[in-house]
Amino acid sequence: MDKVVKLEHHDVIAIVTINNPPVNALSAAARGGILECMNAAIADPEVKAIVLTCAGRTFIAGADITEFGKPPKPPGLNELLAALENSPKPIVAAIHGNALGGGLELALVCHFRVAAEDSKFGLPEVKLGILPGAGGTQRLPRAVGPELAVKMIAGGEPISAAEALESGLIDEIVQGPALGGEAFARKVLAEGRPLRKLRDDDSRLAAAKADRSIFTNAVATMTKKSRGLQAPFAAAHAVGYAIDLPFDEGLKKEGEDCMKLLVGDQSKAQRYAFFAERRAQKIPDVPADTPTRPVKRVGILGAGTMGGGIAMNFVNAGIPVTIVEIKEEALDRGLKVIKSNYDRTVARGRLTAEQVDQRMSLLTGSTDMNDLKDCDLVIEAVFELMDVKKNVFKKLDAVCKAGAILATNTSALNIDEIASVTKRPQDVIGLHFFSPANIMKLLEVIRTGQTAKDVIATSMRLAKQIGKVAVLAGVCPGFIGNRMLSKRERQANKMVLEGATLWDVDSALYNFGFPMGPFQMNDLAGLDIGWVKEKSTSSTLIEVLCELGRYGQKTGAGYYDYDENRNPKPSLVTEKIVNELIAKSGKNKRDISHHEILERCIYPMINEGAKILEEGKAIRASDIDVVWVNGYGWPVYRGGPMYYADQIGLDKVLCKMKEFEASMGSDFEPAALLEKLVAEGRKFGDLG
């Protein structure tokens, strides 16, 4: 226990320090050590107050994830919290870094809380499909009021030390947590402050008890983006217990609700997705201790929507960026768009004007590619044409310094071919950002046949530094995400020409859990992407729409018609074009059920995922799921396409693919791996 938790005496102050790196997780050893040290301090007549703090870079950042799914080891968290809350001596939680999940619940049972200025506080359990299970939903509303509690618990987002101080969650901001905590403990003793037990203090609930709309309005705000998810609504209900019920009854119902979620399918899928993100960082042939290259300055080639968004990721992380465009007007336009993006963030209260100025100061614009010569990493974000890309890489090869990483943001092109025009193919890699690049979490990292291991390691580390979820893939058309997406798009378009309406297809996928269907998604992106007027032949729906100037939301019409607020409604124009195309084909329309729509859109994706695994273009099935959850809106409560396939049964998927193949042809030819797994009674999850 002494190795994990240490007890020291500074005359009448006992200091209990947790040292359980890297994040001081509340493991069984940590829980036992805290309880043992606390009991010793409480029993010691010389001790008048106790400070609970942590060594290392953070306070307790949550539960020990290695214990998830295993039989609980004593002491339980509730036992520990009760011992601290009922201490006859004042306990001060001295916080730095992150106090998250069980860490914040532990701090909430302490009688006082102080924190360093950079601290963050949160109960993010909702992101795992569960609730805080140790009184967090009952104590936090009593500390900060139900409105902020709903935001933190149902939304799962942390708050800063400044917000914590303003809301009453902490008592003071201190310079150093241990010293500050000790100084505050001495102040408590000198002033004879009474011990504040949150469980007994309903003062912050009084307004919501008198006017229930204070709570219901907060719930409506926080849960409007939670479609399909169970945990945010359960979290809101649990905060309601704090308002409506005595503490012990609310605590009991919180535990019951948490257990229901814990054993449910949604939480299992969300926990799978959580661990899948962490597995994706492990690359079998690139050891964790592989040296990485320093990246102190980044170059971006192209100041358009994608290039500007990519640049924002790096300056947000404090990394200077040189952004290069061909013409001054394009450069100025790109920099203005970046500034306007930041200004909108300021208007929402998420950044200060000073922070924006600091980030913009890290951006250097240029029309001279030679200004990239000192960059450690250069990412091109130019037109998606092979000849253009190869020409750019020839120039970068001549300009950039030795050891610089040369990256392409291509979404589908052969990066081996791009790398072949350089004298340093080992330094070339794909960094496929998703639009809008400053917001979307996913980054596909594409290794070529010659990419050096330290380049891969550097790219994966850098992705984490700029707040991205990185997945390593191999070179193939469309890589992981777009390769599978193409199968869904093909079937969606074919079904429309068989008799399904566009809105039927979109509705089926929306009801499955996607934020929007394929046709709404294309309207959002712009139908004219990749469309060339001079080559248009009026032979497809998208060509005819583009010929009519219906490019999607930006023109007020695409597959759908849009009102002034960009709300979609079915279009008679589109319906007429579809009927004409069907008539030209000589085929009869038929009714297509939502069930068939889902099977024809999703099963070919799963099948293509199996082919990607067969070819070694993805390391593991869970990597594919990480791509789809973080880059394509796959509902997290369904885990990802490969996880979903395992849940419904690979035999069912295979049977339906064979049925479709017999009636509709080779689009549905089953992958060899899918057939092999079914024959062996195995799942994608069994592949490791």
UniProtKB/TrEMBL annotation:
Its main location: other. It holds the Pfam family 3HCDH. Pathway: Lipid metabolism; fatty acid beta-oxidation. Residues 298-473 form the 3-hydroxyacyl-CoA dehydrogenase NAD binding domain. Residues 478-562, 597-682 form the 3-hydroxyacyl-CoA dehydrogenase C-terminal domain. One of its GO terms (biological process) is fatty acid beta-oxidation. It catalyses: a (3S)-3-hydroxyacyl-CoA + NAD(+) = a 3-oxoacyl-CoA + NADH + H(+). It comes from the Bacteria. Gene3D superfamilies: 1.10.1040.50, 2-enoyl-CoA Hydratase, Chain A, domain 1, NAD(P)-binding Rossmann-like Domain. Coiled coil: none annotated. One of its GO terms (molecular function) is (3S)-3-hydroxyacyl-CoA dehydrogenase (NAD+) activity. Keywords: Fatty acid metabolism, Isomerase, Lipid degradation, Lipid metabolism, Lyase, Multifunctional enzyme, NAD, Oxidoreductase, Peroxisome. InterPro entries: 3-OHacyl-CoA_DH_NAD-bd (IPR006176), 3HC_DH_C (IPR006108), 6-PGluconate_DH-like_C_sf (IPR008927), ClpP/crotonase-like_dom_sf (IPR029045), Enoyl-CoA_hyd/isom_CS (IPR018376), Enoyl-CoA_hydra/iso (IPR001753), NAD(P)-bd_dom_sf (IPR036291). Monomer. Belongs to the enoyl-CoA hydratase/isomerase family. This is 3-hydroxyacyl-CoA dehydrogenase.
